[in-house]
Amino acid sequence: MKLNLKIWRQKDRESQGKLVDYVLEDLNPHMSFLEMLDTLNERLILTGDEPVEFDHDCREGICGQCGMMINGIAHGPLQNTTTCQLHLRSFTDNETIFIEPFRSQAFPIKRDLRVDRSAFDRIISSGGFVSTNTGQAPDAHALPVSHQVTEEAFDAAACIGCGACVATCKNSSAALFTSAKINHLVLLPQGKEERQERVIRMVEQMDAEEFGHCSNTEACEVECPQGISVLNIARMNYEYNRALTRRK
Amino acid sequence: MLTTLSRKMLLCLTGLFLGFFLIIHLLGNLQLFLPVEEARLQFNWYSHFLSGNGLIKMVSYVLYLSIIVHVIDALIITSKNKKAAKPYQKDQRGRASKWYSRNMGVLGTLILIFLVIHFQNFWYVYKFGTLPVDSNGNKDLYQLVVTTFQEWWYVVIYVLSMVALCYHLIHGVHSALRTLGVFHPKYVRWIKVAGAVYAILVCAGFAMMPIYIFITTG
Amino acid sequence: MNLDAKIPEGSLEQKWENFKKTAKLVNPANRKKLEVIVVGTGLAGSSIAASLAEMGYQVKAFCFQDSPRRAHSVAAQGGVNAAKNYKNDGDSVYRMFVDTLKGGDFRAREANVYRMAECSLNLIDQAVAQGVPFSREYGGYLNNRSFGGVQVSRTFYARGQTGQQLLLGAYQALMRQVGKGAVKLYSRHEMLDLVLVDGKARGIIVRNLDTGVLERHAGHAVILATGGYGKIYYLSTLAMGCNGSAIWRAHKKGALMASPSWIQIHPTSLPQSGDYQSKLTLMSESLRNDGRIWVPLNTGETRKPNDIPENERDYYLERRYPAFGNLAPRDISSRAAKERIDAGFGIGPLKNAVYLDFAKAIKEQGRAKIEEKYGNLFDMYRKITGFDAYEEPMMISPSAHFSMGGLWVDYELMTTVPGLFALGEANFADHGANRLGANSLLQASVDGYFIAPYTVANYLSGDIHTGKIDDQHPAFDKAQEAVEANLRKLLAIAGNKTVDYYHKTLGKILYDYCGLARNEAGLKGAIVEIRKLREDFYKNVKIPGDSITMNSELEKAGRVSDYLEIGELMCFDALSRNESCGAHFREEYQTAEGEAMRNDAEFQFISAWEWAGADADPVLHKEELTFEVLKPIVRSYK
Questions:
Q1: C-alpha span between C433 and C410 (Å, rounded)
Q2: pLDDT tens readout for residues B195-218
Q3: Which residue in the set A44, A57, A89 is minimally distant from C241, CB to CB?
Q4: Which homologous superfamily is A117-133+142-246 in?
């Protein structure tokens, strides 16, 4: 199959970027989207052009490193799928595809399609953990946790930190990412002890990173590769309200 | 300094108060559907009662304040969101959400413009203009309403504004309850339906008034 | 060279206790004067960095990914083993030790293996305390499943994302220390060389991958937790960035490499579908709990799998290994698959796969139960292949997965370079010639949480009077100059072939001659071919751009240039071992039934290789293995 690509090229953080046209022919529809970019890069290198820089690593949808806007949709047309798991069979022959980086004030573009998502790391380091040191743990069976609660906590913990929620949010809100971690931890007895401090610190850090407000449009859940529920955001609000009313 | 969540809370509380006011406003205005002479006396008495009552006066100030805070807070939130987000060359993000949930600001602006017209039509004239009195000696606001809604284009403005309000309320109530922190899946579903029913009833009720008057008195 | 494993005194059960009792300590006031460099932020790296920082050491952590959470531990699916015996099915530390040692074909140290089994108990406790949502039963207690090569259920799991959840636990512990300022985090930094001062590991040279700037970092000890080098085969289950460069460059600075040819080929990954392919996605081994593996009984079968009647299917694992059936260990399952595929029974468009069938399990347990257990794996299968595995069998094939080999370390996880430690998959220590499923997360974690915190402290106790290590020392200058020269050399080649071409070609050579089956002639030929390929690489590779900006091709070129050397060493290693053991199957050494033939009389040792220069053959050193508790037996899963 043939594809007409319009790819965002930007030299570095400060430079102005622009869309550049490329045409690829004789592509196999079973090829993954990133393998298509590999093919393009191979060609660019051999013709003396600079290859396109893009984020990727595990290529099985779990590391969260890949991520780009494909035709104006985070991770492309398939819902709940990372870019690396997208295959060319999701496109039609001779289709024009726009490929842009995830855009947000909090995710500066480093080069081409690569963005800096270290804001997410800083949100986690502000409180996304259980304050326990190595070697202090009681026996794993000391505290039973119900099957249902564990499954709910897992649903929230499944977040891969790719940033599609931010990219797809009209406000660049990080509410889904932040709330998923808050809820994963608050649901489990081990994480309940510091629930107040955690939610306040993580929300403040989220704001300091200049993410926008959540407007509850719920687009993030639709595009999230892990299908993290927007109810996490409601629950984060509950936790935050609860913490504010109880704070001394 | 407010956090993103606190700002949303402020928007939520003022919005819910305004939404609650709409119910009272609607119930009171249902008097317009009475037979003409009965409606005139009832409605004018009711208007007189509202403007004379001290408690109601207090509430009205809270109401004005809520409108102002809701608008200013929304402006701040929107400007911060605009700063946080960056535009795409090709943007199809809209596939994942409802158009009205993404355009609360536009809907809100329409509603604000409507409010200005609405206040100018009735509130301003009632407060600062001169109106004839009815047989009970109350200012004849009813006549003003009837006169206004005999203009077809006022009816159109009012009805369209109620459509805007309806969408604003459908998303607004839903979003407000999220902000309050209602997260249980069962109640969330129920509340979403209840919020939509509320929005449709209130807006349909208000929209019926100009249409009814246009048809029955025109 | 004398390879002293430094195994502590005492009976097997007492060795680790004895070490801990007598290990030297560092006073809390002195700890903040000591700096430790940790390279890699997977399970082993994150956990040791967090643990050391909690104790009060100054830690610098490095990873090449854009966040520590993306390290490839994240991709482990099936689970983590621990001898908790919560299932009351007769499990114990000793039984786990036996299973692991036997699974590794008696090519690992007894003391190390026993310690790993022993520490597995604490790991589950630690992970639960961090908030890892392991699967639980309705009563609220932890659930287990069974994995290949064992007859008990000792595998703890969090759906099919156990690695992700364990890594996030360690990552969160790490980020907590980063937030406190106890760990300095350098993401998107790649280690390009190790710096030795007076024979001790005292620092590293790294390249900031976003800016291209070279930096020097000094410390009292260097810990490499950089994972495995299975990506050397190009097509593998590993991430695109996984590489062997950190350990290889340490190897060139004097650390011995042990058993480099022991690479596990995982039996259940998705088959290759074309030349463009960059990766073979793993389907968790846990699927073999409920899936049955088969190929058609006739070659040239053209019917769809569901149309092939039961009596025309060959459930070859159940046929050949009735006791373990579909849960036979990985090396055996992979080889059995290769045997069928090579014999012409392979399925799929390229005839390179076998079926993994869930029809029976779905019929017996219901679709909902299978969905709960493996839902995410079935989803992933559909996304990648476009087929629905609830309706028809999956197509799977073997793929390079895990390197049992790695830097040689002693019982204290220290390499032959003083002050240089290797943790997790980067070392060779615990799995012998074949790793059992769900033991890799375990090894990485216990190395980082429970072993290295003691052994690194034991080493650092000798450094409390050393003072700050100076990164302006001439040794740093020299190392940095060498790194710069190497980058210049690569960029100057300006040939006409891409880096990926060399990587793919090398991978093909290794799959063919140093993969599931090896023989003398093939290995000798492979060494010649790899040398030629390497020569060609330095003449004809083309790397665009420069070294002072972000340049992915330059990063890849550095890694592939190392692979071209590691691959050669793998062939030397495989060639020198005239026996079949675990993942190492020499065709000359097999029984009449095609099973592996080990040779304990001559090869009961660990091969540790010394770098002798680019143009010289590597030098072999041997660490003899002694088995005091468990006498080696023939490994049979029949």
A1: 17
A2: 999 999 999 999 999 999 999 986
A3: A57
A4: Alpha-helical ferredoxin (1.10.1060.10)
